Amino acid sequence: MAIVTGTQPHPIFLAGRWVESPDRLEVANPADPAHPAGATFNATAAQYEEAVEAAVATFEVTRRLPAYERGAILRRISEGIRDRRDELARLIALEAGKPIRDATGEVDRAVLTFRLGAEEAERMYGELIPLDLMASSKGRVGITRRFPLGPIAGISPFNFPLNLAAHKIAPALAAGNTIVLKPPSKDPLTMLTVAEIIEQSGAPAGSVSVLPMTRELGDRMVADPRFKLLTFTGSPSVGWRMKERAGKKKVVLELGGNAGVIVDRTADLDWAVKRILIGAFTYSGQVCISVQRMFIHAEVWDEFMARFVAGAAALRLGDPLDPTTDLGPMVDQTAATRTQQWVDEAVALGGRLLLGGRANGTFFLPTILTDTPVSARVCSNEAFAPLVVAFPFTDIGDAIRRVNDSFFGLQTGIFTNDLAHAWQAFSELEVGGVIVNDIPTYRIDHMPYGGVKDSGLGREGLRWAIEDMTEIRIMVLAWPQ
Fold first, then answer.
1. At residue 3, does pLDDT exceed 50?
2. 191: pLDDT confidence band, cut at 50, 70 and 90?
3. Given 183, 323, 404, 463, which is the most exposed site by the fewest CB atoms within 10 A?
């Protein structure tokens, strides 16, 4: 079943069946709003109920699947995504507005994510624990094993419509769970295409449902006690409200940030400029770990800023399907308008605009600000836009404190050739990841990924996600004395 863009809506994937509903969902093309990327359906309440009941029933099958079968299913999904690489990348570019080079990279990461899921399914190790630590426990030993939790509710965001959904489905299947995924309403067609691959992989019918749905039905899913875990990636305001409504189920939240990067006086400036341009402006800054705040040592400020502004000015805005495009559109007009308001506010508060600062429809120029008070929303909140705010510093401890002066704590990058400064950053930065001599935007899919403070709870990355999606159980063996 191939995606058909235009007037023919794509059916939704309900527990191994393809269904339609009366609630048609139009999917916009951010780069060309006059020509939609396609259409699908929002699930009805009855269809949601059927998907959850199937997930509950099918868990009795998936929980007993041996590791080799789970691994084989995940490898087939990985291979299927690889085989449809160009099709999926083009679809991401159309419905998410992501430049085709970045969209292709996202598909490649999803191939890896499902392959890693297969490998982790085959190495869910337990542990042998000696228990004879006191006389009354003589002759006893403990053996631990991880068991799947049960049905999982997954909600994924628009900015990585394939790979961030993969980080929910792959570990769920690897662990032996079932999952109902709510893909983003802005770009659901990507995961509906992947559902075709899942259907062909041999995954038990009912183990995966991909159901676009309204916010109201999504709220019902969040509170549904039949799910044993909620995994959500999205905005902090939405995520923390979900946690309040989730009841007794486990909750994993991968939320936002206003990531900082430190450029020390010993940094390799050529490398720092090259990488921070990518970190600040890739996918128009619509990345949770996009560089939003730069702290530049005063001794290299002039040289770094001159190179950085020139590099940003040379970035090419254009059609996401054009392989020479660096920046495509923002996801919709609302996002571009909000960004314009925040930039205008920063300038009104005394910020100095070094580049950009202007919207053109859904496109927003690469924007660099300095002399901006930290109270401005471009500093204190998550911009999720192609903008960065620069600050000078003279003391590494002060730079670290200023990075930490944030509600968020996802990842931070530090460019330095001073080993003591790298260790100090690792010890003192209040974040989930410290990236030395690279941008906070760096991620590879098997590393533990997640944040502290308002940036979330728990970790993704296959091994760590599986820990959240399983319960540890101990068997104690006693020898009669």
1. no
2. very high
3. 323
**Measured between alpha carbons, how far is 15 from 205 in angstroms, rounded to an integer?**
5
Q: What is the residue-wise DSSP string for 339-376?
A: HHHHHHHHHHTT-EEEE---EETTEE--EEEES--TTS
At which residue do the structure tokens 């939609």 appear? 36
pLDDT tens-place string over residues 153-177: 999 999 999 999 999 999 999 999 9
Mapped onto helix, strand or coil, the DSSP state of residue 212 is coil
Kindly tell me the sign of the dihedral angle through the C-alpha atoms of 378, 340, 164, 102: negative
- Note whether 381 and 421 are within 8 A (CB): no
Q: What is the DSSP letter of 43?
A: P
CB 259 within 8 A of CB 287: no
| 437 pLDDT more than 90 | yes
- Compute the 3-state secondary structure of the chain and give helix, strand, coil in percent, each to the nearest 5: 40, 20, 40
Looking at CATH, the fold of the domain delimited by 12-255+456-473 is given as Aldehyde Dehydrogenase; Chain A, domain 1 (3.40.605)
Whether 55 and 14 have beta carbons less than 8 Å apart is answered as: no
Instruction: Read off the tokens for 368.
Output: 């660099």
CATH topology for 260-445? Aldehyde Dehydrogenase; Chain A, domain 2 (3.40.309)
- Which residues is 232 bridged to in the sheet? 155, 253
- Give the helix ranges, DSSP H, for 324-472: 333-348, 377-380, 396-404, 419-428, 462-468
> Which tens digits make up the pLDDT trace of 236-280?
999 999 999 999 999 999 999 999 999 999 999 999 999 999 999
Active site residues per annotation: 254, 288
Place of tokens 């109920």: 49
Sign of CA dihedral 417, 418, 420, 424: negative
Rounded distance between C-alpha atoms, residue 463 and residue 445, angstroms:
10
Separation CA 377–CA 62 (nearest Å): 46
Residues of the chain with CATH 3.40.605.10: 12-255+456-473
Which tokens belong to 319?
């059609």
What average pLDDT does the chain have? 97
From-to residues of CATH 3.40.309.10 in the chain? 260-445
